[in-house]
Amino acid sequence: MTAVTVLAYGAGNVASVRFALERLGATVRLTDDPAGIAEAERLILPGVGAAGYAMARLSGLGLVEPIRAFSRPLLGVCLGQQLLFEASEEGQGVDMLGLLPGTVRRLEPGPGRPVPHMGWSRLSLTRPDPLLEGLEDGAWAYFVHSYACPDGAATLARADYGGPVPAVVRSANRWGCQFHPERSAAAGARILRNFLEIEP
Questions:
Q1: Residue 144 pLDDT more than 90?
Q2: From 86, 182, 197, 199, the catalytic residue
Q3: pLDDT above 80: residue 1
Q4: Active site residue: 39, 65, 78, 199, which one?
Q5: Least enclosed by CB within 10 Å: which of 51, 58, 79, 140?
């Protein structure tokens, strides 16, 4: 049975992520400890709410450097994807993990396009990746976010919300999903299963 560690640092929807993984047969370990990160076969960084608060929690628990040093598969979910980047313009600006280049910026509202972006959007796949194996182009995913990551070489899939929104990103062993795979029905379950099958 695949083992996966979920960071329970006080700024993530840990319960729903855990239940989704357990439904797929995974053994889930929760940790807020640097040693728990070092021992993990694969790691999920969930996140909801404000980037500044999340980074303060990670820093206060001594988790920032262990996450940066983690060399096995890592998946950031929702705000967890945003935390992988260098900075966010949220508030007065937030320095983040710096594992991917660029700054996370606020979505621009428009007619029929309120912020936050909340609801189902289709995924447009840009290139093959083990995390997206078996996923159809145009699959639906469930989003809840007010900020979007920069679109660049790391982007594996996009959604459209008045412009391209990086929905899945990757750099080396680090992946991110801007949407909530644990709330995205069959497409989300497939992505989580693929993550569990990636070799550490």
A1: yes
A2: 182
A3: no
A4: 78
A5: 140
Distances in whole angstroms, Cα of residue 140 to Cα of each of 32, 90, 165, 180: 32, 27, 14, 11
Kindly state the tokens that stand for 182.
């644990």
Q: Is 177 a residue of the active site?
A: no
Q: What's the angle, vertex CA 46, arms to CA 163 and CA 123, rounded to 5? A: 30
Q: How far apart are CA 43 and CA 196, in angstroms?
A: 10
Position 67 pLDDT exceeds 90: yes
Q: Which residues are CB-contacts of 5 (< 8 A; sequence separation ≥ 6)?
A: 28, 29, 30, 31, 36, 37, 39, 40, 41, 42, 43, 44
pLDDT grade for 110, boundaries at 50, 70 and 90: confident
Q: What is the pLDDT of residue 12?
A: 84
> What b/e readout covers 99-126, taking b as 16+ CB neighbours within 10 angstroms?
bbebebeebeeeeeeebebeeebbbbbb
